[in-house]
Each structure stands twice: as structure tokens, then as C-alpha cells.
């Protein structure tokens, strides 16, 4: 029997939300257990700190500047490579259950397959790209979609509205009347994107994703290999977990994050060291991207709001951990435990109060860039458990899946398979990873490139509306793990800056064919 | 208010391109995601793949300057104006410009995203007709 693959993603989850990574708010025994049996990565970076480009990198094994989905709202080309297609060609049954987001959500015309699948059923010849080989969509045989609420055309939202319409109003309204990310506050503290939700736990999307995954697994042939991407929409905002669960983490007892300076002057002093758009956003002068509420200034964020957001976030993380436990139980009941590789990660992080900020944007620091990544190889393979400290990237996932499946790495994959230990990482030159940001929305364009090594985080800002091309950030990760002191202009680190700048140039000039950058067709 | 524009150079005469877009009832044939529509006088109601119905008011169909203008009157929009201009470049060479101005801004972007796909279809249909001619 070959190795089956359970690929688990969450959305917008910080590295330090897992117990095994030092988190103290959530209890995550299932993921902690998988980490203890497998490989835990200390420094995993996304290729982008927003959903669509990052998720497209997981599927294609390419950086955004190669696959062309360069910002949220830009669809991944329908003929883009897909690791699911290669696995399907190798005989794997393939499924994606939960949040995909390779194509824009805001799509009143239903032009994108992700938004029309729930209406059309599984499309076949209706889709012009269908050739009978790729599966229903992007190489997946089976797709059931969910996202952060109950509006829109996706499967979960339709299911709730059809079978449990009485709970629809319990969910937070993700966008406001102008279709911007809603700034409306709720909970006890009035924090944005917070609401007490009366939905029963078993109807919430976290449990729905696990339920649908178990249903799909139960329908699979015992002997056939499968690749299942189980993709939870949480703990991405809105923070509206089932109200019945929120007593797990009483928000008034939640400590403020270590990187949340309590005084405004401290926050402003830290932000003023960074490139100018940080402070501009904090003050409410500029919202450069769609991923944060258009009518909300981080400067208004209160300590109690940070506490409450982080408490609800922790509840959502716990629910995910328990849902994963149920899926692992289903796998055990089928007798597959020894033959399943489990890979857990997320697409990007979340500020959760760091520097006085919430949500995300063109801000390349650990809050958004350091991700949880756990790979529990199939026990039958006998890979030793351990920790990898060298930097790795989500761009390596596609190659890793193919290696697990015993398949060759196609030319279009840019990332090498993940290392199994530090020695393996050093032997194969896992020395640095790159993260890209490009956005151009309503006249504001921002372009950011970062390199992370084990010792440093280096960022250059390309010319755009907010930057003239001279700005940058350089953090010494050993002595300044919270990235509070920008040493971009420090002569003592000029050699480091030069070396990391050269690594960035190497990344920009790397060989390989680039897709034509996609067209922005929606905010997200 | 956001104002966005997409354009497409098309290897067909201005009349061949105009023939594709000038009839209000033809929109399901060239606007991806619009599956049907009804037209009653200057009121058109489109229906999308997702089941959404949106009423529109036709403002201008001017065959002398090859301009089609309409407004989405759905309450989702506080304002919308869509304009399709077909401009002659040469005997079999045209520029089709599809402009969207709307409030809220986010919805302008969504509609304009659709117009980009529509231009590709307009091009495909007009060029196929041009080759047949």
C-alpha cells in the first residue's frame, strides 16, 4: 500500500497559537501529538501574507510572481499547474473540502468555478477547461467549499441557509453595506469583526469541514491512495465561534501579547522605525489593501479588544484541533493510520495585537510570516521525529506531496521537498526563503519583497504610492525576535544587508517561466 | 466613487463589433456569468449564474457613435454607469472600451472584473464573424 496524504490548512493562524510552539491560550493536544510523532518546523514562511497568492503557491509549488495570482482578487489562471492534477494522474483520489480561494469570492456573475460549483453540482463539460483528465476542478475529483460566513454561493453557506436558516443571523456580517471589510464591533469589548454566535457547535463551519472530510474518507476504497486537502476557514476573522464554546478561554484573563506595547507612545515609536505605511495605517490615514476594514484605524484598538480577539481566536484554534482529532479517528477506524502522511499548516498569520495592530497587510514580520508547519510522515516509513530550525517555505509543499506519492517533481515546481531534519536542510541548502507582496487597489500600489534566514529578516520596498524604493527593514532575529528595532540603516549590519539584498535579487532573477500576471477582478 | 476601464483591440470592423453589443437582449451571449435577461422598454433585468437578478436601465444605444450606456439600478449600488464604446481604428481593426463607474467602490471592481471577461467574449464573437464575412 502506498502513502495517503491528509493536508490540513487553516486560515490566518499564527505560529504561536499551538501549544507545541509555545502557545498558552489554546489547548491543541492533537496537533501537539502529531508534532511529537513527526517533524515540526521552527521557521516556515508563506510566499505571500494574504490568502489567494499563498494558497495558489501551495497548489502550484510556485511563487506568486510565477503563478500570476499576485494579490487577493486575482484568480489563479485556470490552466495553472496543480499538484492535485499530478496526484490524480498517479492514481490518487483527490478532494478539497473547506476553503479553496484560488479564485475571487466576490463574484456576482458566478464566473469562477469555485462560486458556481455549489449551484451547478460538479461541472463537467460546462467548463471550457475540462478535458476529462484534470478532475472536476484543478485536479480535484471532489470539492465542497466553505468560507468565513454563511453568505454567498459556497456549499456550506447554502447548507446553512437551506437546513438551518434560523442561525444565519448569528454569524458576523463579514462585509458592510459598501462591500468593504466590516469595521462593526461586537462581543463585550466592541472589537471589530467580533460577535457572539448562537450557532450550535455542530453546525459551525469547523465541524462541517471535518464532517464532510470524514464522509469523503468513508467513501474511499480501502486500497486506493488518496490526497485530501481539508481546509478550515478559521481562525481568520470574523471571530464569531459558537457562543457555547467561548467560556473555554475567558477573555478578561487573557494576557496582552508580549509584542503589544500598552502605551500609545511606545507603539508609535516602534511603528515610526518601520516603513512609512505602517504608521499611516495605524493612524487611519491609509488602508492600502482590502484585507483590513476600510473604516477602522488600529490606533483605536484597546487592550480589552486585543484580549477578547485573542480569546476567541484561541477558541477557534481549539475547535480546529478537536475537529482534526475526529478526522484522525476516522482514519484509524479505516485502518489507515500507519500509511497516512499528515501535513498541517496555514496560509499566513495575523497581528493579534502585535505593534497595536490587527488583521494583515503589507507588513512582513513574524506575526504574519512565521507559520505553524507540522509534517507527520506515515509511521510505516520510519522517519525520525524532530525539529527543523532552518527556514522553509510553503512553496515546498507541492514537491513534498509528490515525493510522498513517489512521483517525480515537475519542472514547474519551484520549491524543493521539505527537509526531514536540519542536516537534510543544510545539505540541500535551505538557507533562506522569500515572501512577496504586490497590491494595486484604487490608486494605491505597494510592492514588498522579503528574505528570511535563520538569523535575519530583510525587507525591501519597491517604488509605489507609499514608497520611493529606498525604504527597507532589517531585523536581527537572534537578538530582536519581536522585530522591534529596524537596523536597515545600521552601518554595523551593512554586510548583512548587502548579502540579503543579493539573495533577493537572486530570487527576482531566478530562472523559469513566469505566467502573465492575472487581472484584478474583485477585492477578494 | 471608483471609475475603472478595460479595453480590447479587436480584429473586426467597428460595425461587426457593434453588432455584437448593440442589442440589449444579447448580453447573455457575451457577458460571462449572465445566463439570461429580460428586456421591457428601457428596463433590462439580468440573471447571473449564482441566481442573482439585477435590474438595469438602458441609457443610450447610439449607432452613430457606437456607444451603449446603461445603469444598474439594483439597490446594491448607490450609483452605476456602464459604457461600452466601439472605436474604429481601421477597416478590420477596432478598439472596444468598457468603462465602469460606481459606488460602492468594491462593487465597481467586481463589475469591472466581469467586463474584462466580457471584452474577451466580444472579441471572440466579432472576430469569428469577421472571418466568416
CATH superfamily of chain A: Alkaline Phosphatase, subunit A
Highest-level CATH class of chain A? Alpha Beta
User: What is the CATH level 1 assignment of chain B?
Assistant: Alpha Beta
- Quickly give the CATH architecture of chain B: 2-Layer Sandwich
Radius of gyration of chain A (Å)? 22 Å
Number of strands of chain A: 16
Q: Low-confidence spans of chain B: pLDDT under 50, at least 5 residues?
A: none
Sheet/helix structural class of chain B: alpha+beta
Strand order of the largest sheet of chain B: 1-7-6-5-4-3-2
The helix tally of chain B amounts to 3
Annotation keywords:
heterodimer; A: 524 residues; alpha/beta; Alkaline Phosphatase, subunit A; 8-stranded mixed β-sheet; 4-stranded antiparallel β-sheet; globular; B: 133 residues; alpha+beta; Alpha-D-Glucose-1,6-Bisphosphate, Chain A, domain 4; 7-stranded antiparallel β-sheet; 30% helix
Structural notes for this entry:
In chain A, strands 5-4-8-1-9-10-2-11 form an eight-stranded mixed beta sheet, with helices on both faces. Chain A has a four-stranded antiparallel beta sheet with strand order 13-14-15-16, with helices on one face. Chain A has helices spanning 29-37, 51-60, 64-67, 83-89, 113-120, 155-163, 205-218, 264-272, 276-282, 303-333, 366-369, 397-404, 422-427, 494-508; strands spanning 4-11, 39-41, 44-45, 93-98, 142-145, 185-186, 191-192, 226-235, 340-346, 374-376, 386-388, 392-393, 432-441, 444-453, 456-462, 472-476. The model of chain A is unreliable at 122-134 (pLDDT under 50). Helix content of chain A is 27%, strand content 16%. With 133 residues, chain B is of the alpha+beta class. Chain B has three helices and seven strands. In chain B, strands 1-7-6-5-4-3-2 form a seven-stranded antiparallel beta sheet. In chain B, strand 3 and strand 4 (53-62) form a beta hairpin. The termini of chain B are far apart. Chains A and B meet through helix 5 of A and helix 3 of B.
Amino acid at each position: 500500500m502506498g502513502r495517503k496524504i491528509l493536508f490540513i490548512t487553516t486560515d490566518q493562524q499564527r505560529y504561536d497559537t499551538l501549544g507545541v510552539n509555545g502557545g498558552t491560550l489554546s489547548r491543541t493536544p492533537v496537533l501537539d501529538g502529531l508534532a511529537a510523532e513527526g517533524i515540526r518546523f521552527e521557521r516556515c514562511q508563506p510566499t505571500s501574507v494574504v490568502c489567494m497568492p499563498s494558497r495558489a503557491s501551495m497548489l502550484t509549488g510556485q511563487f506568486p510572481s510565477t503563478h500570476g495570482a499576485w494579490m487577493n482578487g486575482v484568480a489563479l489562471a485556470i490552466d495553472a499547474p496543480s499538484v492535485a492534477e499530478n496526484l490524480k494522474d498517479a492514481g490518487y483520489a483527490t478532494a478539497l473540502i473547506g476553503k479553496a480561494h484560488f479564485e475571487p469570492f466576490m463574484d456576482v456573475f458566478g464566473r469562477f468555478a469555485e462560486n458556481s460549483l455549489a449551484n451547478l453540482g460538479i461541472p463537467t463539460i460546462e467548463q471550457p477547461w475540462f478535458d476529462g483528465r484534470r478532475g472536476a476542478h484543478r485536479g480535484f475529483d471532489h470539492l465542497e467549499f466553505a468560507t468565513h460566513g454563511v453568505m454567498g454561493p459556497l456549499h456550506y453557506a447554502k447548507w446553512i441557509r437551506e437546513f438551518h436558516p434560523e442561525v444565519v443571523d448569528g454569524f458576523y456580517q463579514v462585509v458592510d453595506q459598501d462591500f468593504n471589510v466590516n469595521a462593526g464591533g461586537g462581543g463585550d469589548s466592541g472589537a471589530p469583526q467580533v460577535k457572539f454566535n448562537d450557532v450550535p457547535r455542530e453546525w459551525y463551519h469547523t465541524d462541517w469541514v471535518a464532517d464532510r472530510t470524514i464522509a469523503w474518507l468513508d467513501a474511499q476504497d480501502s486500497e486506493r491512495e488518496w490526497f485530501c486537502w481539508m481546509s478550515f476557514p478559521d481562525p481568520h476573522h470574523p471571530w464569531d465561534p459558537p457562543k457555547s464554546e467561548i467560556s473555554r478561554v475567558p477573555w478578561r484573563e487573557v494576557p496582552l501579547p508580549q509584542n503589544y506595547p500598552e502605551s500609545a507612545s511606545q507603539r508609535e515609536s516602534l511603528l515610526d522605525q518601520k516603513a512609512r505605511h505602517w504608521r499611516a495605517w495605524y493612524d487611519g490615514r491609509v488602508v492600502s489593501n482590502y484585507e483590513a476594514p476600510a473604516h477602522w484605524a488600529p490606533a483605536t484598538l484597546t487592550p480589552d479588544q486585543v484580549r477578547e480577539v485573542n480569546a476567541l481566536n484561541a477558541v477557534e484554534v481549539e475547535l480546529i484541533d478537536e475537529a482534526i482529532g475526529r478526522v484522525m479517528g476516522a482514519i484509524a477506524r479505516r485502518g489507515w493510520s500507519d500509511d497516512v502522511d499528515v501535513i498541517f499548516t496555514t496560509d499566513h498569520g495575523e497581528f493579534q495585537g502585535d505593534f497595536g495592530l490587527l488583521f494583515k497587510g503589507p507588513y512582513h514580520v513574524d506575526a504574519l510570516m512565521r507559520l505553524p508547519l507540522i509534517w507527520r510522515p506515515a509511521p510505516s516509513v520510519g522517519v525520525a521525529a524532530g525539529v527543523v530550525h532552518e527556514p522553509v517555505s510553503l512553496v515546498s509543499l507541492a514537491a513534498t506531496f509528490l515525493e510522498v506519492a513517489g512521483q517525480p517533481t515537475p519542472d514547474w515546481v519551484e520549491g524543493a521537498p521539505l527537509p526531514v531534519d536540519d542536516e537534510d536542510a543544510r545539505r540541500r541548502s535551505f538557507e533562506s526563503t522569500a515572501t512577496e507582496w504586490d497590491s494595486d487597489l484604487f490608486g494605491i500600489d505597494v510592492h514588498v519583497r522579503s528574505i528570511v534566514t535563520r538569523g535575519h529578516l530583510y525587507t525591501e520596498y519597491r517604488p509605489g504610492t507609499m514608497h520611493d524604493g529606498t525604504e527597507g527593514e532589517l531585523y536581527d532575529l537572534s537578538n530582536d525576535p519581536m522585530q522591534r528595532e529596524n537596523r536597515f540603516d545600521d552601518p554595523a549590519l551593512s554586510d548583512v544587508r548587502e548579502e540579503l539584498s543579493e539573495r533577493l535579487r537572486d530570487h527576482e532573477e531566478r530562472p523559469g517561466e513566469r505566467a502573465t500576471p492575472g487581472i484584478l477582478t474583485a477585492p477578494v | 466613487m471608483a471609475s475603472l476601464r478595460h479595453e480590447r483591440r479587436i480584429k473586426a470592423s467597428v460595425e461587426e463589433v457593434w453588432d455584437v453589443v448593440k442589442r440589449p437582449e444579447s448580453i447573455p451571449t457575451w457577458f460571462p456569468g449572465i445566463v439570461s435577461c429580460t428586456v421591457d422598454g428601457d428596463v433590462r433585468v439580468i440573471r447571473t449564474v449564482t441566481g442573482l437578478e439585477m435590474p438595469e436601465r438602458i441609457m443610450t444605444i447610439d449607432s452613430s457613435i457606437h456607444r451603449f450606456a446603461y445603469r444598474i439600478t439594483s439597490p446594491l449600488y448607490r450609483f452605476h454607469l456602464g459604457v461600452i464604446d466601439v472605436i474604429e481604428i481601421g477597416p478590420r481593426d477596432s478598439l472596444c472600451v468598457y468603462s465602469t463607474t460606481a459606488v460602492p467602490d468594491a462593487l465597481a471592481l467586481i463589475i469591472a472584473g466581469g467586463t474584462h471577461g466580457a471584452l474577451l467574449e466580444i472579441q471572440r464573437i466579432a472576430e469569428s464573424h469577421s472571418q466568416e464575412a
